[in-house]
Amino acid sequence: MTLSLRSHGRLKVLAVLCLLLTLLTPAQAQAGPGGEDAPGWWDPVQRPAPDSRIGVTGEPFKGTDAQGRVRGFVDAHDHIMSNEAFGGRLICGKPFSELGVADALKDCPEHYPDGSLAVFDFITKGGDGRHDPDGWPTFKDWPAHDSLTHQQNYYAWIERAWRGGQRVLVNDLVTNGVICSVYFFKDRGCDEMTSIRLQARKTYEMQAYVDRMYGGPGKGWFRVVTDSAQARQVIEQGKMAVVLGVETSEPFGCKQILDVAQCDRGDIDRGLDELHALGVRSMFLCHKFDNALCGVRFDSGSLGTAINVGQFLSTGTFWKTEKCTGPQADNPIGAAPAAGAEKQLPPGVSVPSYATDARCNTRGLTDLGEYALRGMMRRGMMIEVDHMSVKATGRVLDVLESESYPGVLSSHSWMDADWTERVYRLGGFIAQYMHGAEGFTAEARRTAALRDKYGVGYGYGTDMNGVGGWPGPRGADTPNPVRYPFRSADGGSVVDRPVTGERTWDVNTDGAAHYGLVPDWLEDIRVTGGQDVIGDLFRGAESYLTTWGSSERHRPAASLAAGAATSASSSEWNPFTSYAPGRAVDGDLRTRWASHWSDQQWLRIDLGAPRTVGRVTLDWERAYGRAYRIEVSADGEDWRTVWSTTAGDGGLDTARFPAVPARFVRVTGLERGTGWGYSLREVGVYGG
């Protein structure tokens, strides 16, 4: 199967023979003695020898700007430890080794002597998979921008990115149990949470490895952080803040089989508690496969077919589509064959065909998914919406808006672009996949006006070792090449070509072959696109930490309507349950008020005393109001409208209006959105 490289984060998971592959590992940065004039605080006391050379001179910038803001670039999506994922033999090489660079940067055993058994190399790159397996010291064939199976995140290459101005790196712990189970080569089990624990531990071990070079605990530049204040301190010291995230298909064992969830709320609570204790502060609720928490945003072409096969092997069901109800759409699935994957299907089972006008996943955010989302909010964690179906993303944004919760991330261009302003309005953070410089610049400029409007910076998601492909070379004869050496974005360091062993890389002829070429790629953006995009990116660290800090400080407001006295124009009768008006303010989303099946129905809430009211949330059941208004009154007799809509679409609505004093709040339905009545699971009333 031939992959389309550079088609951003989505490529992560690939069709491993019987299916796809799932993501990431980190990229590589460069380190080494290479030409430093005199030892400074940024120089290690003792670096392993031999090792990679850094190729950057000058003191890394420290402190904050004149407004007290941190500075620096943000990689919001990387996978440093994915060599430990998928059974341990899908991504070859390690980000560090106590035995040195020769041990860290060597190929998988089955790739020797000539790559004949490099099955995944063949699947992801085409050809026959053959390559020179030797890494150190020659690096003839890898790492490379189109080699998706080899380590790109060697610690010294990450160090080079830090020296070039990057100050935040999100290390997404990643794996996929199905890929692990179907891949031929593995040296460990396939339990996803076991792999996540191991990758977290290895990240802390890498921190200790770097610390020892600098003289002891806490002295190295690679700092794992668990809160935004700690991250700010690290960056102010001139070091790199490393944040742990999770991107896996079935977190906490929350898979589904034949649409039956294999986890419960207890599993979710235990899983979130464990991840938080490990230091994880951001997470994807679903990735590539529909699970018990949410539906996914599809992949296209033969890759999509392979992933759909993987979905069936994992869950017993294929993706299901429907016509979209709004401007957003999931990716088209397409009908391209993936013969290797399809052979894994049971006899008589085939991948279904899909209508071209049905672009949306039928599956959105489940009740368990919403429980997990709210659990993340209670823990101050940030929610990744990339890979969620538009139906799931819409509900997530509705919930976050209802709570004024800012902790939402889109880290690698896998979210429908139409959600961009909603994310910024909430206070969230967006990063673009590491495309070629010209394409990256074009997309950055397309959204620049929104960043200006909301006063935010920008990020990139390298997705290194995420099996997505990275920017290729523009060529030695390009009229506007990166010219070495060049100045870092802050102007304080000089960056020359990176050298590891006998190999010298040049972004003009090698593209983004490993993480150490991130500074070179950023210079390519400056050369081809101008300083304005670099300026937005250099403000990324401050914006990311603002989103994180606001999430940590968020405290949910108590609804003034909780348990309040209520009345309604009518209530639907049912011999088995009650749909009384009080059910809409009992704090239980499993109960609801339902009216008779006609228009002009209302629900009235008595707050018990005059209160200041400025926000009302309405969580509709399937029977929703298309046209309705929010009214307030001091005495329950004289009413005035403070908010209204004629375009209600159900789900969770948040009505905001200038704060007013009121004792009574009334929701008046004018036009139903269905043939049923009006049905509200919960109504919240809040101050301004």
Automatic annotation (TrEMBL):
SUPFAM superfamilies, alphabetized: Galactose-binding domain-like, Metallo-dependent hydrolases
Cross-referenced InterPro entries: FA58C, Galactose-bd-like_sf, Metal_Hydrolase
Keyword Signal: yes
Pfam families according to UniProt: F5_F8_type_C
Signal peptide: 1-29
Alphabetized PROSITE patterns for the sequence: FA58C_3 (PS50022)
F5/8 type C domain mapped to chain residues: 553-688
Lineage start: Bacteria, Bacillati, Actinomycetota, Actinomycetes, Kitasatosporales
UniProt cross-references to Gene3D superfamilies, sorted A to Z: Galactose-binding domain-like, Metal-dependent hydrolases
The protein's name in its UniProt record: F5/8 type C domain-containing protein
Keywords attached to this entry: Signal
